[in-house]
Amino acid sequence: MSSPNLHPMLNVAVKAARAAGAIINRAALDVEAVRISQKQVNDFVTEVDHASEQAIIETLLGAYPGHGILAEESGTEHGAKDSDYVWIIDPLDGTTNFIHGFPVYCVSIALSVRGKIEQAVVYDPSRNDLFTATKGRGAYMNERRIRVSKRTKLTECLISTGFPFRTGDNFKQYLAIMADMMPRMAGLRRPGAAALDLAYVAAGFTDGFFETGLNPWDVAAGSLLVTEAGGLIGNFTGEPEFLEQRECLAAAPRIYGQLVPLLAKYSKFANVDDKLRASDRMRAVSASTKSNPDDASADLYARSTVVDFADETAEGDKPAVAAPAAPRKLTRVRRDAAPAAGAPSEGDTSVK
C-alpha cells in the first residue's frame, strides 16, 4: 500500500520491498524445504534470495524502465547500463540467519542518483518493521520519525558488528579490534544483517555499528537512514566516501568521534604509523590467546584493559565500568517522538 506522504520513487521501493518480504515470509514457514547453494565458504544463497530479487527488479523496472540495477545476486544484468539512477538491492540480507530460522534478516533497497543515495528502504519481514528515508526529509520507522541515540559516553553504549567469515578474512585483526573495543563499552553484538544493523543505529536501538568486508548493497540503504536520523557514517578513519571501500563505521556523532580513534589503525586506509600499531596489537592479542589456552578469553580481556588505556576517550571516559544508562522504554517505536515538523507534505513529489 502506497503512502501519499512518501516520495513516488520511495513508494515504489516500499512496494518492491513488501513484495520481497511476502516471498521471504512464505518460505520461512518451512525453511527446511528451501534449496540452498554455496557461493563460497560460509557464504550461502537460496532460491528465496533469487525469487525476492526478481520480484524487486520487476517492480522497480516496471515503474522506471530507464533506471539501472545493481543487485547482490544478478549484479548489473538488468536495467539500463548508463543511467544516472541506479537501484542498489540486497534481496535477503542475513541469508545465513534465514536458513537457520534465526529471525534477523531484511530486504534492502536504495536509489543512487549520480552516485549519491537519495532513497532508502530497509524492511524486516519477520517483525513487519519498515524503515524509510528520502534525502533531506528525515528517517522513519513505520511512519514515525526516528533519531540516533543521545548517549555521549562510549562506556554506556551498545555497539553492533559483523564477524569475518570468508576465506582470506583477517581474523586476527578482528580479535584485536574486539579486545580493544569490548572493555570500553556496555556491550558488543553480532546480529548478522548489516542493513538492519544500520537501521537500528538510525532508530537509536543501538549506538553504533562497524564491520569490514561489506558490499554496496549491504550498506547503501542503511547509510541514508543513519545520516537522515542525525548520525554519521564513513570508513574506519572517518572519511565519508566509504560505499565501495568494504569497511563501515556508523554511530551518533559524539560516539562516532570516540570510535574513529579506536578503529582507524585497523583501516586499510590508515597511515604507516597506525598500521604498525595495529600489527603490534594483533601480535599481542595472538600471544595472549596462546599463552593460556585454557582461559584465553579471561587473559585476553585482562590484557586489553591495560594496553593503551592511558589514552582516554574523546569524552574523557576511562575504561572503568560505568553506571548503566537510564532504562529506556521497551517499545519498538519511540512513543514520545513528536510528529516530524519536516515531514513531507501530501502531494510533494519533487526529487531532492
Short description:
The chain is α+β, with helices and mostly antiparallel strands and 352 residues long.
Describe the structure.
The chain has 352 residues and is an alpha+beta fold. The protein folds into two domains: 8-137, Fructose-1,6-Bisphosphatase, subunit A, domain 1 (Fructose-1,6-Bisphosphatase, Chain A, domain 1); 154-304, D-Maltodextrin-Binding Protein, domain 2, CATH 3.40.190. 33% of the residues lie in helices and 20% in strands. It contains nine helices and 14 strands. It has helices at residues 8-28, 47-63, 95-99, 171-181, 194-203, 216-228, 253-263, 272-291, 296-304, and strands spanning 36-40, 43-46, 68-71, 85-93, 106-113, 116-124, 129-134, 139-141, 144-145, 158-161, 187-189, 208-212, 232-234, 247-251. It has a seven-stranded mixed beta sheet, sandwiched between helices. It has a five-stranded mixed beta sheet with strand order 11-10-12-14-13, sandwiched between helices. The protein has a two-stranded antiparallel ribbon with strand order 1-2. Strand 7 and strand 8 form a beta hairpin. Helix 1 (8-28) packs antiparallel against helix 2 (47-63), helix 4 crosses helix 8 (272-291) and helix 5 (194-203) packs parallel to helix 6. Residues 293-352 have low confidence and may be disordered.
